[in-house]
Design brief:
Layout lengths: L6 H4 L13 H17 L1 E4 L5 H13 L5 E7 L21 E8 L9 H7 L1 H11 L5 E2 L7 E6 L5 E4 L6 E7 L7 E4 L10 H8 L7 E3 L6 E4 L5 E4 L9 E9 L8 H8 L4 H8 L10
Antiparallel strand pairs: 1-10, 2-3, 3-5, 4-12, 5-12, 6-11, 7-10, 7-12, 8-9, 8-11
Helix pairs in contact: 2-5
């Protein structure tokens, strides 16, 4: 018999009363998240998931790990992997770093799973909307990239990059024994300024602007990754894997991801991606 989960099976509403937006506990959690987001575009809601929920979602990820698309490539922060002669060699566009990780695609899940219930929960979506102080938060409609799990097996890392979406939500499920740390440089670029010089310094291991987070199992992270350079450091070969659930949201409904990046992350595209590419209108002029 298939288990059907409710969001309060997964989130302790006594600690985080997502169903009582006027309650003091909700307002405290909301205020703390907003403060973090306003400060540097990154908020961590500690222990949002019940320990039992972490175990359940971990089992769901492990059961589908064989569907992971793993890839190892050398890429720049914009997910490009070939040299661009329009820019000098000593430039972020032509600085490439190893990316070696995997993603479980969105079509590996189904609506009976805890991970899917959490992603599509209106209570959680409303909380994220409140944290971001916007009414425009929708589950990413991309059939592969909307709900995913990021897999870092021993020896792998996710190189410095920017997201295509304005923000992402991550639930830490299985921590690495060491390494696998989330690092970021808050709001290093803007829609009007790529900030290439500052980015190049980071790529050359200047850590003066780098912040490091130690996310623990059950923590939820809300992150504005479109303008903040970020990575996950290498998981040592002696460590257990790092698994994180990725809940992707967009500011507009019905958004489908770009063909090039979808193929890089999942090794394939669907007709929906090809169709969306034909009618796509860019929201900014950033490289990507």
């Amino acid at each position: 018999m298939t288990r059907s989960y409710r969001v309060d099976d997964l989130v302790d509403f006594n600690v985080y009363p997502l169903d009582q937006t006027a309650s003091p506990k909700y307002k405290v959690a909301l205020s703390h998240a907003r403060e973090q987001l306003q400060h540097d575009g990154c908020a961590v809601i500690k222990n949002l998931l019940r320990p039992t929920a972490v175990k359940i979602i971990s089992q769901e990820i492990i059961a589908r790990k064989q569907t992971t698309h793993f890839s190892t490539s050398s890429m720049n922060p914009y997910f490009h992997s070939t040299n661009n002669p329009a820019y000098p060699n000593h430039h972020p566009v032509n600085t490439f770093t190893e990316r070696s990780s995997g993603f479980i695609p969105g079509d590996s899940w189904n609506s009976s799973l805890a991970i899917d219930v959490l992603f599509r929960s209106e209570a959680l979506t409303a909380f994220i909307r409140d944290c971001l102080e916007t009414q425009s938060v929708y589950c990413y409609a991309d059939p592969l990239a909307g709900l995913t799990a990021n897999i870092l097996d021993p020896g792998q890392q996710f190189a410095w990059h920017f997201d295509t979406n304005e923000f992402a939500v991550t639930a830490m499920i299985d921590e690495a024994d060491e390494g696998g740390l989330f690092e970021y440089v808050p709001m290093i670029r803007t829609p009007d300024d790529e900030s290439f010089e500052r980015i190049q310094k980071v790529l050359e291991d200047d850590r003066s602007e780098v912040k490091t987070l130690e996310l623990h199992a059950g923590d939820l992270q809300i992150f504005r990754g479109r303008h903040s350079l970020h990575r996950v450091t290498r998981v040592p070969t002696s460590s257990k894997p790092r698994h994180a659930a990725i809940f992707a949201y967009t500011a507009e409904p019905g958004v489908i991801g770009r063909v090039e990046r979808t193929r890089q992350l999942f090794g394939r595209v669907l007709p929906a991606h090809e169709e969306a590419e034909q009618r796509r209108v860019r929201s900014d002029a950033l490289i990507d």
